[in-house]
Amino acid sequence: MNGKFFNLMQKLGKTFMLPIALLPIAGLFLGIGASITGQAFVEQWGLEAVLGEGTLLNGILTILTDVGDVIFSNLALLFAISVPMGLAKAKKEVAALSGAVGYFVMYASMTSTIQVFGNIERLREIEGLVDSVLGFEETLNTGVFGGIIIGLLVTYLHNKYYKVKFPDALSFFAGTHFIPIVSTLAGTLLGILLAFVWPYVGAGIAWVGQAIASAGVIGTFFYGYVYRALIPFGLHHVFYLPFWQTALGGTATVAGETVQGAQNIVFAQLQAGEAISPAAASYFSFAFPMMLAGFPAAALAMYHTARKDRKEDVKGLLLSSSITSFLTGITEPIEFSILFASPFLYFGVNAVLAGLSTIIVQLLNIGVGYTFSAGFIDFVLYGVLPGNGRTNWIALAIFTVVWGVLYYILFRFSIEKFDLKTPGREADDEASRLHTKDEYRESKGIDKVSLEEEDSQAPARKEDQQSAQITQGLGGQDNISDFTNCATRLRVTVADGSKVQKSLLQKTGAAGVVVSGNSVQVIYGTKVTGVASDLEDYLNDQGWSSEDE
Known about the structure:
Subcellular location: Cell membrane
Distance between the termini: 29 Å
Helix content: 55-70%
Strand order of the largest sheet: 5-6-8-7
Largest sheet: 4 strands, antiparallel
InterPro entries: Glu_permease_IIB, PTrfase_EIIB_Cys, PTS_EIIC, PTS_EIIC_1, PTS_Glucose_EIICBA, PTS_IIB_1
Keywords: Cell membrane, Kinase, Membrane, Phosphotransferase system, Sugar transport, Transferase, Transmembrane, Transmembrane helix, Transport
Main location: membrane
GO biological process, one term: phosphoenolpyruvate-dependent sugar phosphotransferase system
Number of strands: 8
Oligomer: single chain
């Protein structure tokens, strides 16, 4: 993969994380509110006196539903803010404000251009194209693409002009003050352009979405396979977002309104009390059998095939990873163990099973969605609570058990047949990595005086020791250009990728390391936020500064 393209996609993907991080709480509010206040749920459990219309609890839950809905309805605006904020070299707060300004101006100019020069009746012939957005009536629905486009444009202008200088008479408008101004001009021009261009783009996106739906099992398999296959590269956010939030993921009429995007369709139906569309939900339902049973079963297969003298060493790691996968749907520790043991086992078995899962859940008419990941918590919220009549969660539960058995059989057979070096089956000489630092020094004959001298110069805190080791693994602080983190990965841009020491980084607790050109991803799982924060404090104490500063 081209290093520059990978780096660009990685940086763009990380800017998506902040709005996406809002989805779990928004989905929680909307899911609980819509499910529990639904007429079918209230009547089924005889809760009219507690949850019926007009009751205090019904009113509170209705408020929560509206709070969740407003986040889903305005994701495009959030992307218009988060993209420039994440990609700006400096003065990120100015970039974020300018992104919001640019988005509003873009829609104002686009709406006005349509009213003056457009044919609104003809535009309505394209399903889902004309909508009301942020109070702008009879305008074009550009979805999250509109937010991302204006966000990228503002990013370019911000990074180019945030230090611009003007003559003294105009100096007030120089520097960061110029960014909202030029963003207003750019948003105006972009809005006018989109008024003429977007109808064709929107029609094209809708056509591709229909083509994917018409492709049947091939289309659904493609989504599931590519989604899992991109996870090692950290590009899955860029891939799935258009399916979740645009017509690529389908178009449906819910409660008399046209809705585009698989996630939007699922949550609109959830809020309206309708049965969840299996076609839209297949973009989410396919993952539950893998997270709830598949990966825990793979971990069990790893444990059963581990060498007897190492079973206790890997038991805790595999058990905790399995519990994490089951409850929250975070699977990277297990997945990267699979990847490093055998790329074929990951891409040829695991990713293929993901593709097959998307086919099966759709054939079984399963309609369970999620916001964060396909763990047990989301399964209860968006599968069990809405009721089996709307989501068919019982069929999903049965399928999940079957999938777990299949995962166990395939993984145990593959590990034993091909002697794969999964956790607990490594070569004897790799066992040294499990020894402590003191054991290593003692084996090398380092005397007590030398040890004390070295320790006196070492970082005092355990966190600093880890950060120092991470810094060394990344080629030293002079090799680190900048870094950030997403939900599970430390994402680093380095000056020279050849200086990165994967083995050293893995000793710091990383489940895996991906290097592409000058882009590095170190996978730590859910603890990555603390790792990144400690690393930032450590580097700042060492006098390090990002190239962007």
